[in-house]
Amino acid sequence: MIEAFSIAELATKVQSGAVSATEVAHDVIARIERYNGRFNALVSVEPARILAQAAAVDQKRARGEALGALAGVPIAIKDAICTEGESTTAGSKILRGYAPPYDATVIAKLRKADALLTGKTNMDEFAMGSSNENSAYGSAKNPWDDTRTPGGSSGGSAAAVASRMALGALGSDTGGSIRQPASLTGTVGVKPTYGRVSRYGLIAFASSLDQIGPFATDVRGSARLLEVIAGHDGHDATSLNVPIDGYELACSASLKGLRVGVPEEYFAEGLSPDVEGSVRAALARLESDGCIITPIKLPHTRFAVATYYVIATAEASSNLARFDGVRYGLRVASPSLGEMYGATRDAGFGKEVKRRILLGTFVLSAGYYDAYYLRAQKMRTLIRRDFEEAFKKVDVIASPTAPTTAFKLGEKADDPLAMYLSDIYTLPASLAGVPALSVPCGADQGGMPIGLQLVAPPLQESRLFTFASAVERHYAPTLPTGVQ
Amino acid sequence: MTGPAIDRARLEHIAKLSALSLHDDEVDQLGRDLSAIVNYVDALASVDLTGVPPTAHVQFEASPWRADDVVAGLTREQALSSAPQVEHDGFAVPVFLEGAS
Lengths: 484, 101
Description:
The structure holds two protein chains of two kinds. By secondary structure, chain A is of the alpha/beta class. Chain A has helices at 7-16, 21-39, 47-62, 105-112, 155-162, 179-185, 219-229, 247-250, 273-288, 304-319, 337-348, 351-364, 369-390, 416-421, 427-432, 461-474, and strands at 42-44, 74-78, 116-121, 168-173, 188-191, 211-216, 259-263, 292-296, 396-400, 436-443, 449-455. Chain A has a single domain (2-260, 392-474), classed as Alpha-Beta Complex (Amidase signature (AS) enzymes), CATH 3.90.1300.10. By secondary structure, chain B is mainly α. Chain B has a domain at 8-46.
């Protein structure tokens, strides 16, 4: 049933009583039983909780109370976001069995909007990866071809939405972890402005970059989700106290005369011809809608991967110090405290996490701090300035989201650097803190989805929704073959 | 500048700083992976960054002050609820003072 609806349509049906939240819950549970074994998108599901939430929504309606913007809409939650009393592991062995004593702010907001939280989604351990292969639960699979990656790190959220085990999902994006999986699975994914959404209750990876954002089956659904989760929160000092625009309203705004910048650096070596062809065709359609397409330069793009992997790993090495076997998670019993730390972290962390903690510790260590960490922070300034300059000339920047469509599971697993380079188009916006979105714009010769990335100036998410809706009007993906 | 290869001694030093015990069979591979990444990152050295201020954190608006109100935090029971080991209403850890037992 739910696969026939968008988020807005289903919420309207539940609000009007045409469909009960309990009917939705039963349908969601059936779809999870049918598809999750194949796609491994959800790592923990508690059917009784889904049914209890649905019953509460139905009772609220029966009492004559108005239902929220996400009434009865099934939303899957990345396993890095705390849900009270429910398993929250960030895809790591070190947190196996952990059930937080509180809800993240975004979770409280979803509950208040009467959403049905359907379970926790698979992810690269601590959000470190671009393919979901670094998960302690094994990789999620791409619903369009289950021998391929759904992307990462929020791969399970993307796969859950693509296979309609949920109509929306929350992910977190540190360097592309929402946009790249959205691109690879034919879904819409949004990384809001740094500070737009509270991170209270998000298990931290790199605090100067992390941002929670939505996935949805369509642009309007992602806009509605962002409207629900955005806003200032006293529990997160980095969350901004600024007005939230009408994102859903922005989906139907005119884009006549607006300027779209196309950065030449994003159409360089390594870009698949199918991806380039689809993105350029989508840009031509925007031009026929009345947009002005302008070539622009983001000259420091080629340094983004190096800059990001210094800054993100440095911050991660500090953030992940909290996993020490004392307050939560795994402990490996040892005779002394020092040995307990080492043994616990060795047993609990996977290979990529160890690699990044070690790299981050190295770039911060005496003798290397200036050469690596400080230098990367300076380069980050130049990357930010690239965007500031570009946005003097254009309203939004458009590019491919990822250089290729979904690659085969295992293809890059043994080459960390090759994996890092696949993030080249999403990292710069993360470093600049500006909002960005991926919207489906086509498919390659094998039928695998292609995403177009839109980047806007700080706090101008509305523009993303306006442009993405135009892209979507020309091209909306069907359900993956093999998913009904 | 050529990147310092991460040799075994350096890797063991970083691992100690990171509170990570490494296995013998992973040390060589980790050293190779990290050296490759560090060599790639050395591209940053090719740019003159004199006079460029560092960005530690992107801030678009002033951080709002929160009201100076007393609000409830986690209770002791909640805070201890996930601990691997609890003793005397606190987090229990192995001995860490020399000579203690």
